[in-house]
Amino acid sequence: MSVRKLILRSLLHQNKFAYVPAILHQQHHTHEKYDNYDDRHRNKKKKFAFTLFGSILVGSTITDDSKHKLNKDKQKTEDEKGMEAGEKRQDLPTFRAEEVSKHNNKNSFWVTYRHGVYDITSFLPSHPGGEQIYNAAGYSIEPFWNVYGMHKTHEVYELLESYRIGNLHEDDMVDHSDDELWAREPYRDKRLIVKTAKPFNAEIPPEYQIAHFDTPNELFYVRQHMPVPELEAGSHQLRVVLAPTQQVSSLSLAQLARLPRAIVRAALMCAGNRRSEMHQVKPVKGISWAGGAISNAVWSGVYLRDVLLHCGVDPNDTEGKHVILTGADIDATGQNFSTSIPLQLALDPNAQVILATHMNGQPLPPDHGCPLRAVVPGAPAVRSVKWLECITVSEEESSSHWHKKDYRSFNPSTTWEDADFESAPPVYSLPVTSAVCEPRHGDTVRVRDGHIEAKGYAYSGGGARVLRVDVSGDRGVSWRTATLQQDHAPPRTHYAWTLWTARLPVPAHCDQMEIWVKATDSNFNTQPENFDHIWNIRGILSNAYHKIKIRLQH
Ligand SMILES: Nc1nc2c(c(=O)[nH]1)N[C@H]1C(S)=C(S)[C@@H](COP(=O)(O)O)O[C@H]1N2
Ligand SMILES: [Mo]
């Protein structure tokens, strides 16, 4: 219900509550369904909508006069490609907001967009979103377009400008930037290190990574692509769609809870964790995460395997199939966040993929997917879809751009120009990594008994356990083995992180040193010494030795 809520919220904020027809629900569900079809289908739908616009425009419902105006304006916008709608127009009259607000009915229907005033009365019957448009009667359409971002295209701007009748008075201009979308973001702990505010992305500070084995919920790193949707546990429904028959089940959380209870202790790590270090070698694209895009928690809920079997998935028919996980958060083009994992992985009892309702014994906080999220242990955290609304078992991987155009691995020589995302394998597991959390790069550390102490985390994906963490205070000439703190899990199902502590000897008279750390996992895979040969355009899987420099105080 998030979209509906966002609009209602925006209306309430503007003191303009209106009837929101049921069409909103339909619209919302259409978004969810996108993953059941492919992009072509979706584009076809869009094209249909625009053709509909077009045919109405040149049809008989508009006068010859406005046809003329339309053509003239079309010319204009084509000449000025790149222009958004709502620029000031010197050739048109100015209206006060009060005047605009009187045109709020089917007989005379005006809206504003930035500086523009538009009489869209004749367009009303052809609005593809149906009666939703009535919410904007006599008012700005911007807050709505901020939610339904698919309006923000040249075609729609052009169409809107064709209904232009004037300018909104300067004194009545309201800032409708997308603030409304972000107005109800959850409260966040001030200790988090904010990387981007909208959407909210924040690291857990390194000292808190090592302070607890299971990261307190409020300190768990946060990775959002969009505003946080507001969902209610009581009314939340999970839809499970089995393509190609499109057999649909709908499960409430109470119904889910009747399945056997599942608990897994697992770290979540963003595939871009430690990207900032790879960036130093050569720039990469993405949030500049240091080592704080990993945290650990105990997740509880039900096994995805049980849910799928309950809904009729045949465990012997997994070849080439995928489980598409779709969240309730929506991007500016109206697409829900989504990605997929192989069905085989989803059904593997050892993989322990769960649908979690709880995190460290508490209901999931809004930032971490309240009231339901997938947790795919040992996989890049992007697969652990939050605010889970829909699961589709399909012959196709998710068609979302998060799945198709991201989280794929490339050769270091591959550039953005020649990267072929289609053929690059999606990342479903993570390599072994580690980081020093204490001391921090640049710190001055007091030497005691000729030693200093270092602490940090190590982690490996796919259920591999960290076997050993090696720490060097002399640039790799000699290594000390760190003491490990670990979860007890059977072989190949080790999904939690490892915390480590090492005591390093310090040569007398030395006033600075480097600390290097590398971990080895139960497959005896170990970290590469530097980033040169694992560099990739997207800066993911950035797992070379972590190297820091500190000053010493004797
Ligand atoms: N619905 C939804 N799920 C999502 C995301 C998102 O933006 N929307 N981000 C993904 C990514 S890239 C990461 S790293 C993890 C972060 O989970 P956390 O915020 O609970 O730490 O959530 C994943 N699941
Ligand atoms: Mo991520």
Helical amount: 10-25%
Average predicted local confidence, pLDDT: 85
Question: What is the percentage of strand-forming residues?
Answer: 25-35%
Q: What distance lies between the first and last C-alpha atoms, to the nearest angstrom?
A: 61 Å
The CATH homologous superfamily of the largest domain is called: Oxidoreductase, molybdopterin-binding domain
- Note the main sheet: 6 strands, mixed
| Total number of domains | 3
Q: Hetero groups bound? A: the ligand Nc1nc2c(c(=O)[nH]1)N[C@H]1C(S)=C(S)[C@@H](COP(=O)(O)O)O[C@H]1N2, molybdenum atom
CATH architecture of the largest domain: Alpha-Beta Complex
Bulk shape = globular
CATH class of the largest domain: Alpha Beta
Uncertain segments are 1-81
The number of helices is 14
The chain-level structural class is alpha+beta
- How many β strands by DSSP? 28
CATH topology of the largest domain: Sulfite Oxidase, Chain A, domain 2
Rg of Cα set = 27 Å
